[in-house]
Amino acid sequence: MPHAIRWGILGLGNIAQAFVAGIGALPDATVVACGSRSAEKAAAFGATWDIPHRHGSYAALAADPDVDAIYVATPHPAHLGHCLLALAHGKPVLCEKPFTVNAAGTERIIAAARAAGVLVMEAMWTRFLPHVRQTEALIAAGAIGAVRMVQADFAYRFPWDPDHRALNPALAGGGLLDVGVYPLSLAHLLLGAPTAVTGAAHLGETGVDEQAVMALGFPEGRLAALTCGVRTRSPQEAAVMGTAGMIRLHGPWWRPTNLTLSRPGVPDEIIAVPAEGNGYNYQAAEFGRCLRAGLSESPLRPLADTLAVMRVMDALRAGWGLTYPMEAGGAAA
Ligand SMILES: NC(=O)c1ccc[n+]([C@@H]2O[C@H](COP(=O)([O-])OP(=O)(O)OC[C@H]3O[C@@H](n4cnc5c(N)ncnc54)[C@H](OP(=O)(O)O)[C@@H]3O)[C@@H](O)[C@H]2O)c1
């Protein structure tokens, strides 16, 4: 591709703005189109962000011949349909987390992506941040020995609003799908797929998980202890504990941050990890790299990893008795 990657933004809410700002930090990417259910909203968003093509429907965005890749930024239950829409037009897709509501939904997207031979990636932006890459590099270099445990949490206190997507079952609300997916994905990155999954959740007034704890077991006795929530503020920290030391990712660990490497007998070492942009640029840079290389998946966040984490979330929700209206009858969502 000789020119900058031309992005189209599907769904013009909060995260769409952060993503467009992130693209601004990339020399070889630009946003050329935005699509909304409302023509007025698309016009206003396009004017604010200087985006030339402003579409009053998602279908028109997906059909725009000047768009090289589509970023899906709609609420969780809409991801499945919007990914399939983009793929039907042969467009590569970067889709917000959680990729879908349940693993069956993810399987449908994977099947469509493979049939089309088109690049699809989950926008698990934390996976691509420099300090997370640095953590992997330290572990690979043996800095903390063999990894034995991972602790991570991501919980925040959202003001009470039962209609907002954080708490509304019709928008697959709850902490697990909104933010639990981050510590689960970190644990998956560092420990692989769990062999045992258990947890406890408080299902609040709207019926969704307001806060939850998750305990995962892995081969050879490795463990992860994770927490998430939308009604309780947590330290938002992570730690990776090995046989010869520990790496701490300071709160909030999901934003570019410094690391502390602790090893017995030596002073703690604070490792500065420089980052650029607002952090969302790194996922877009990886997506662009894959697109230019003709890949249909990112080796850093393959769809198998996305699916594995979705299956863990399905298992946790099954244990809590939490299903969403759009899953009625076992539907893929
Ligand atoms: N990576 C991150 O850090 C991060 C942060 C926040 C959210 N997210 C993810 O991004 C997705 C969107 O979150 P958000 O906070 O940006 O949500 P939001 O502010 O509510 O925006 C979602 C947009 O989706 C469109 N939409 C389509 N169907 C909708 C419906 N039934 N109800 C409401 N909106 C609908 C709307 O755009 P139009 O009106 O233009 O059609 C709306 O503005 C979620 O899946 C969330 O998990 C990721």
Can you describe this structure?
By secondary structure, this protein is an alpha/beta fold. The chain has helices at 14-23, 39-49, 58-63, 79-88, 103-116, 130-140, 175-191, 280-292, 303-320; strands spanning 5-10, 29-35, 53-55, 69-72, 93-95, 120-122, 147-155, 196-203, 209-217, 223-229, 238-242, 245-249, 259-262, 269-271. The chain has 2 domains: 5-125 and 281-309, NAD(P)-binding Rossmann-like Domain (Rossmann fold, 3-Layer(aba) Sandwich), CATH 3.40.50; 130-274, Dihydrodipicolinate Reductase, domain 2, CATH 3.30.360.10. The chain has 9 helices and 14 strands. The strands form 2 sheets. An 8-stranded mixed sheet has the order 8-9-10-7-11-12-13-14, with helices on one face. Strands 3-2-1-4-5-6 form a 6-stranded parallel sheet, sandwiched between helices. Strand 8 and strand 9 form a beta hairpin. Helix 4 runs parallel beside helix 5 (103-116) and helix 5 (103-116) packs antiparallel against helix 9 (303-320). The chain is globular. The mean pLDDT is 97. The structure holds NADP nicotinamide-adenine-dinucleotide phosphate. NADP nicotinamide-adenine-dinucleotide phosphate binds at residues 11-15, 36-38, 41, 73-76, 78, 96-97, 123, 125, 165, 178. Residues 11-15, 36-38, 41, 73-76, 78, 96-97, 123, 125, 165, 178 line the site of NADP nicotinamide-adenine-dinucleotide phosphate.
Main features:
333 residues; Rossmann fold; Dihydrodipicolinate Reductase, domain 2; 2 domains; six-stranded parallel sheet; 33% helix; binds NADP nicotinamide-adenine-dinucleotide phosphate
